[in-house]
Design a protein that fits this description.
Distance between the termini: 48 Å
Order of helices and strands: HHHHHEEEHEHHEHEHHHEHEH
Structural class: alpha/beta
CATH class of the largest domain: Alpha Beta
Number of strands: 8
CATH topology of the largest domain: Rossmann fold
Low-confidence stretches: none
Helix content: 40-55%
Strand order of the largest sheet: 1-2-4-3-5-6-7-8
Shape: globular
Strand content: 5-15%
Largest sheet: 8 strands, mixed
Oligomer: single chain
Mean pLDDT: 94
Radius of gyration: 20 Å
CATH architecture of the largest domain: 3-Layer(aba) Sandwich
Amino acid sequence: MKLIFQDPTFSFELLRTLSYAPYGGADIGECLATGYRIEEGDFESWYAEWYKTAERVHAQAAESLARGKRISARESFLRASNYYRTAEFFLHGNPDDPRMLQTWKKSRSTFHQAIPLMDWPVEQVEIPYEGTSLSGYFYRVDDAPRPTLIIHGGYDSTGEELYFGGAAAALQRGYNCLTFEGPGQGATIRLQRIPFRHDWENVITPVVDYLHTRPEVDKRRIALMGISLGGFLAPRAAAYEHRLAACIANDGLFTFQFGEMAPRGAHVDFNEPATLESFIQELMANNTGVRWAVDNGRFTFQAKTFPELIEKTLPFTLEGVANKIKCPMLVCEAEADHFFAGQPMKLYEALTCPKTFMLFTAEDGGEEHCQFGALLLFNQRVFEWLDDVMDGLSSPKQ
């Protein structure tokens, strides 16, 4: 699927931003008009044009708010938040670039301005975690104990994006939702400089502990969904945190190791750091996807060199781990996933728990990574699966 750009990375990220339109995160014309102004493959052009659009929509939100137009203000704040996120996306090659933090903060602050204008109660929460805390949002339908879905992102998502990526759909279907940013993500990497870790159970267990303090949560019906790299992190957590009633890998991921990045047929000595660094720099110069992936990896894993990034991602495998999962597991796959082709089936085959494999195809428009472009279809199918799992559990005494 190509959208405006021939460059697959630019096309995909435009599709990702546009995909949030059904949940208030984008307007189609705004996204297309912005895309047409961007110079193909140019990270600076991408930033400048998306930032310009975000600023314009942000100003519209402020004007509507000043006039007491709650719905208009909310809609514009939400779109501005998503557009600021998109503008910041390719800036991670220089973590000291002041625009990165400034633009991310605007994405966050515009979302915060939308919160009191929403139709559901939304709380900004801090989840205790290893002497510090993880920032999150708790969305609730009402005060009654309800099934609750935890959602976290992956390699590059933010907590604000997760509203469009799952929380809104959960609320529509009667689920409470807790979204949060773990190590390597959002505020945790940008403000606290805490990098990714592979043993995600040490992240999810405090999150489940937190939910057990909330009277609005049906404690036997807590599910977890991980998106993108979260398709590795969530199953890893479910293998050791057995209070989860279900786990969703969107999309499934069995290994995430930068040592697998070399193209087939490439002759490079991975034991020679200088040669390897030269090899990856050449790849980055000729491929925007590789450039972004390595830039973001160095940022989120706090790796100074590519060999160090390879070393830090070595533990990211579910070999010998997937078979420890006990709860029902849903593994999703996008037919034309250009990031993790073949990985969902590897995960699915390694599972010994009750399991379901869910394929999204080009015919239904859901073939791109994490089904961007078909989120309404994705949520329809996934939540119907989750409803069936949850309906099989009786509500306990709180």
